[in-house]
Amino acid sequence: MDITSFTYIFFVAISLTIYWIMPKGCQWYVLLVDSLVFYFLNAKTYTFIYLLVSVFTVWLAINFFERNDSQKKKKQMLIFVLIINIGLLAILKYTNLAISTVNFILSKICEYHITPVSWVASLCISFYTLQIVSYLLDAYWGVAKIEKNPLKLLLFTSYFPLMVSGPINEHENLDPQFYAEHRFDYNRVTHGMKRIAWGLLKKLAIAGRLSIMVDALWDNLAFYHGVWVWIATIGYVFQLYADFSGCMDIVIGVSECFGIKLSENFNAPLLSKTIQEFWQRWHITLGLWLKKYIMNPLLKSGFMIRLGDSAKKTFGKKQGKKIPVYFSMLVLWLAMGLWHGNSWKYIIGEGLWFWVILVLGQIFKPVFDRLKKQLRIRDNFAWKTWQTIRTFLIVTVGLLFFRADSLRDAILRLKASVGLNLNFNIIKSAINDAIVPLSKQGLIFFIISLISLFIYDIYLYNGTDLITKISEKHILIRWLLYILMIVLICTSCNLDREPFAYAHF
C-alpha cells in the first residue's frame, strides 16, 4: 500500500473516523488493529513471526529485569535478547553481504562460489528493531518504565505510520501519547492534513519529476560522462531529500491527525554549513540512536578508557584523548553504513567517507582557524554560502555511492566524472532526454515546487514552521496557496511512481 495512493488515504480516513468515535480508553486498540491490518496488507504474512519474536523476547526481558536483583543475570538476559534481535536483523539483511565478500575473496584464489540466499525480511525491520532495542536498553539501564501488557509493546513496535520508513522513536516519547485521552482537535488535525499535503507535493511534484531527469542522465554513463555525472548526482541529492523528507511529512502528518506527535527526522539539512551539522539535520533519529546506544556506551567502556590512557602516553594528553573519540566515531559510521544496506557501497559512501571527513575536519581545525584569521575571513553571507556549497558537495560524493548499483559502479562513475563533456550536441541531447519528457507545463510546475521547497527550508532552518505561519495569513492568501498546492499535487499524480527510497528498510 503506497502511502501516496488513494488506498492509503482511504485507509487512514476510515481509521480516523473509527478512532475519533471510539471511547477514549479504547482508542489505542484501534491503533493496534490498524497497525496489524496495515502490516498484513503490506508484507509477507509469515514475516509477522519476526515481529512477534522481537516483541515477545523484549517483553520477557524487561519483565525479567524488574523481577531480578542480580545484575549478572540481567546482563546475561540483555545479551541473549540482543543477540536474538540484532542477530535476526543481521541474518535477514546482511547474509548476502557476507556471501558476496567471501565470493570476492574466493574468486582470487579458486573457482568456488557460494550461492546468495533469498530471504524475505519483515516489513520495516531495520526501523522497528532499532526502536525496540532502544527500549530494551533503556529498561536495562532503569530509565524506562516496564511495560506489563505485551499488546501495548506490540503497538509501540508496529504503530502503522512508522511501518514505512520510521522515524525511530523512543518508548518514553510514544507510550504516554498512545494511552492519553485524545479529543478531536480541529487545528491539530488540519495541521496534520496540511503536513500530509506538503509531503505529497515533495514526493510527487519534486522527487517524481526529478527521478525522470536523473534516470535519463544516470542510465547512459557512456554518453553522459564528465560533469554530467555530477549534474545527475546533484539532481539525485534533491530527489532523495524530497523523497525521504516527503515520506516523513506524510507519516508525521498522519500520526498528528491521531493526536500523536512523532520525532522529527529532517530539519533543512541541505542548508547545513558543516558535515556534522548536516547529520544533525538529516535522518535525525538514526543519528541520535547511533550516538546514544553505540558511541556513548563505547566511549564509557573499559577498553576505550585504557585506549585513551595509552594514547595520552604516546601522543600527549591533548591529542591522545581524541583517539578513543575517533575510534568510537569509526564504529558509529561503520554502523551507519551497514544500516543503510547490505553492500560495501553503503559502508564506504554512507559510513567511512563521512568518518574520514569529520576526523580530518577535527584534526585540521586549528590550522583552518589560523588560516581564516590570517586571511581575515569574516562570517558574512558570502562565507556562509561557501560553507553550505562545500558541505553540499561533500554530501553529493557520499550519495553518489548510495545511488550507484554497486561499489564498483560508484568507483567507475567517479572515474568517469573527470572532465567537462559540455559540447552543444551533449547539451541538446540532455535537454531532449531529461527536460522534454516533463512537458512545458510539467517543467513549470516542477520549478514552482522546487522554489516552494527552498522557501520552506529557509524558514525551517531559521526555526519557523511555514505551515503554521501560512495558517495565520488572511483567508484569501491562505487559500490561494492551498489551491496552488492541490494543483501541483494533482498534476503530478499521473507520473510513474517509484517506491520511497527507504521503504525497503
What's the short version?
Helices cover 73% and strands 0% of the residues. It has 505 residues and is mostly helical. It is globular and about 75 Å long.
Order of helices and strands: HHHHHHHHHHHHHHHHHHHHHH
Radius of gyration: 24 Å
Number of helices: 22
Sheet-strand content, in percent, reads under 5%
Name the poorly predicted regions: none
Portion of residues within helices: over 70%
Distance N to C terminus: 15 Å
Largest sheet data: none
SSE-based structural type:
mainly alpha
Shape: globular
Strand segment count: 0
**Mean model confidence by pLDDT:** 92
Labels describing this entry:
505 residues; mainly alpha; 73% helix; single chain; globular
Descriptive overview:
- This protein starts with 5 loop residues before the first helix and ends in a 15-residue tail after the last helix.
- The model has no long low-confidence stretch (mean pLDDT 92).
- It has 22 helices and no strands.
- Helices cover 73% and strands 0% of the residues.
- By secondary structure, the protein is mainly alpha-helical.
- The radius of gyration is 24 Å and the shape is globular.
- The chain has helices at 6-21, 27-42, 48-67, 71-109, 125-141, 150-158, 171-179, 186-218, 227-257, 275-281, 284-300, 302-315, 317-320, 323-340, 344-363, 365-374, 381-403, 407-416, 424-435, 439-461, 466-471, 475-490.
Helices and strands, with pairings:
Layout: H1 6-21, H2 27-42, H3 48-67, H4 71-109, H5 125-141, H6 150-158, H7 171-179, H8 186-218, H9 227-257, H10 275-281, H11 284-300, H12 302-315, H13 317-320, H14 323-340, H15 344-363, H16 365-374, H17 381-403, H18 407-416, H19 424-435, H20 439-461, H21 466-471, H22 475-490
Helix pairs in contact: 1-2, 2-6, 3-4, 3-5, 3-6, 4-5, 8-9, 8-19, 8-20, 8-22, 9-17, 11-14, 14-15, 15-17, 17-18
